[in-house]
Amino acid sequence: MNAPIRLFVFGLGYSAGAFARAMKAKADWVGGTVRTVDKAVALAAEGLRAFTFDGSAAGIGIGEAIRQATHLVVSIPPEHTDPVLACHRSSILAAAQLQWIGYLSTVGVYGDYGGAWVDEDTAPEPKRGRSAERFAAEHAWQVAAAERGVPLAVLRIAGICGPGRNAFAKLAEGTARRIVKPGQVFNRIHVDDIVQTLDAALDRNAAGIFNLADDEPAPPQDVVAYAAELMGVPPPPEVPFDEADLSEMARSFYGENKRVSNRRIKEALGVALRYPTYREGLADMWERGRWR
């Protein structure tokens, strides 16, 4: 019989929250952090041990929960420095039961490769401030995990899609746009595939860097057009990138173009993507009414 899993998640947001819910069936207990008391109360009603943590100071009760935890997942982005290590490093280093850490990062750390393929051995060249901070945080967690003597999996995640985060929702809201920049592609990953990859990494106490991305980097305008086709609505008109009214942050995403290889999660973790391209993910959400 396997030893009981006690999972603590820093940042019970969209993806890590889905993972925490999925782990309730196999873990002795699952706990984690949110930013507000209201969210903590709501998650407690779902059977999760929820603590408040805003990144500015150690959260009440979190240190003791970490010391009981066997597995730790971190899904809080850095704010200049990593807030979890800034506030709870000593508790993590003192966690005698801890067996594994998973750190959720972003494929944005690779920077711009002009549409070329990148994999986990590709040298990161983060251009944007947030991506550079993520890359620095990856290194900080590698140092902390080595000091504690536990394996660390750094999970670099592509654009996340799933219920509530998809082209259907944007079409329904009237906010979907088909911005065309010739040659531009993005990878995506369905939240269900994030959950199953995290589960596989945890089961194996996997160490190293892993890209969480789909099989087909695709132009963003194609994704919107396919969703519109499934919905039976006309797609929004194409807008040339140079004419698009974009925020500085949105425009910066288009400044990075790469194709992200997911071979390692398949070969090292045995992952078979449920949604290998955007088409399977959108079709499943539409057919099952899971897009809202």
Ordered list of secondary-structure elements with their pairings:
Layout: E1 6-10, H1 14-23, E2 29-34, H2 37-45, E3 49-52, H3 62-68, E4 71-74, H4 83-93, E5 100-106, E6 117-118, H5 129-148, E7 152-157, E8 159-161, H6 167-173, E9 178-180, E10 188-190, H7 191-203, E11 208-212, H8 220-231, E12 238-240, H9 248-254, E13 259-260, H10 263-269, H11 278-288
Parallel strand pairs: 1-2, 1-4, 2-3, 4-5, 5-7, 6-13, 7-11, 8-10, 9-12
Helix pairs in contact: 1-7, 4-5, 8-11
Structure description:
The model has no long low-confidence stretch (mean pLDDT 97). Helix 1 links the parallel strand 1 and strand 2. The strands form four sheets. This protein has a seven-stranded parallel beta sheet with strand order 3-2-1-4-5-7-11, with helices on both faces. Strands 6-13 form a two-stranded parallel sheet. With 292 residues, it is of the alpha/beta class. It is globular, with a radius of gyration of 19 Å. The chain contains eleven helices and 13 strands. The longest helix is centred in the middle third of the chain and has 20 residues. It has a domain of 197 residues: Rossmann fold (3-Layer(aba) Sandwich). 39% of the residues lie in helices and 18% in strands. The N and C termini lie far apart (39 Å). Helix 1 packs across helix 7, helix 4 runs parallel beside helix 5 and helix 8 packs parallel to helix 11.
